[in-house]
Amino acid sequence: MTLTLKVWRQRNAHATGRFVEYQANDVIPDMSFLEMLDVVNEDLTDRGEDPIAFDSDCREGICGMCSLMINGVAHGGQRGTATCQLHMRHFKDGDTIAIEPWRARAFPVIKDLVVDRIAFDRIIEAGGFVSVSTGGTPDGNAIPIPKDDQELAMDAASCIGCGACVAACKNASAMLFVSAKISHLGLLPQGKVEKNRRVLSMVKSMDEAGFGGCTVTGSCEAVCPKEISLDFIAQMNRDYLKALLKRE
Ligand code: SF4
Ligand code: FES
Description:
There is one protein chain. The protein is α+β, with helices and mostly antiparallel strands. The chain has 2 domains: 3-111, Beta-grasp domain (Ubiquitin-like (UB roll), Roll); 117-247, Orthogonal Bundle (Fumarate Reductase Iron-sulfur Protein, Chain B, domain 2). 40% of the residues lie in helices and 11% in strands. The chain is built from 10 helices and 7 strands. It has helices at 33-46, 118-127, 137-142, 147-157, 164-168, 175-186, 189-192, 195-208, 219-223, 231-247, and strands at residues 3-9, 18-24, 69-70, 73-74, 96-100, 109-111, 114-115. The strands form 2 sheets. A 5-stranded mixed sheet has the order 2-1-5-3-4. It has a two-stranded antiparallel ribbon with strand order 6-7.
């Protein structure tokens, strides 16, 4: 396959970016999207040009590092799929593909397709943990947890912190991410103890980072590679209100 790529190139956070056109030759349909970019970068390096900067780590949908807008859709639009799991067989020979970084005030571009997602780390620092003593593994296994709660908590815990939900949202809201992180701890007995403090401080950190509010368009859920449900946002709103009332 031969593809035309329109790639966002931006030297650094302060430079003005622009789309630059590249030809991707000899693309094998079984390559992942990132492997295709690796090949383009090898060509650029051979020609003495600056390779395209993009984030990746695990390349198996686990770490949440890959973060590309592909033809205007976060992670490329294949349901439940991160960019690193998207294969070139989903494109046709001769296609033109636009590749951009996440766009959100809270995720400034560092270089080309790489954005700074430290705002997510700050939200986790604000409360995405359990600090009470939970004992050892046998203690954890000894606490009965209703099956529904257990499964919901595991669904929420599958969030990989990629930020696609923010990139897809017209308000650049991080509420799907934050609600998943709040729910995966708050649904389990070990995390319930700090539930009120957690929701108040994580939401405060989210607001301070400059993320927008949720207007329930559902665009976040549609692009989420882990198919995190909007229901978690509704749960977070209820938890937040209860915690506020309790604090008052
Ligand atoms: S909720 Fe989904 S899209 Fe948002 S950070 Fe988590 S895995 Fe990524
Ligand atoms: S590179 Fe780890 S999830 Fe894509």
